[in-house]
Design goal:
It contains 8 helices and 2 strands; from the N terminus they run H-H-H-H-H-H-H-E-E-H. It is mainly alpha-helical and about 200 residues long. The longest helix has 18 residues, at about 90-110.
Amino acid sequence: METELENFKLVEQLFGRSLTQTPHISLWSSYINYIRRINNLSDPTGQARSIIIQVYDFVLENMGIDINSGRIWLDYIELLKNGPGVLGGGNWQDMQKMDSMRKAYQRAIAVPTNATLEIWREYDKFEMGLNKVTVSLRLTFLVNDWKLMYAVGPEASPGKVCVLRDRTRRCHCSRRQYHQEYQSYDPAETPSGSRF
């Protein structure tokens, strides 16, 4: 209601009090939408884009490990795609765009979310579009890391706990929904036809 009345000071106070206290993905998504509303991306100075990217970084730092954060990761990557610079170009802005997108993709696929497979496929296309010679080696290392991070224990079956572990083999969550997605995943769809 406050946003409709353009009472932005009160809205900012509400977000300031509630964001760190409430780890709910829809609240954090509303915060992103609010920031995008008050910062016009067509700003010629690029300051608005910088603020929005900082907000996405803040949100993903706090909520990026939530299984339902997949939409936020996809929106963030799309924002970076539409930013200044040309993928595959040679100037500093093009290289900066490529590096920031690569970093975002790698952060996103390292977390089990409801969009991990979609992000993985997009990342594969992104890397293949840049340089097919060096991409094979880079993605091979990522596939090996991915196998370790998303290893599902033998005790995990429908109705039991899905044990997802990171590189240090610590358990991070027990989410049956992700386990079911993992079981339905076709290994032939991994980059370069690699198999688990």
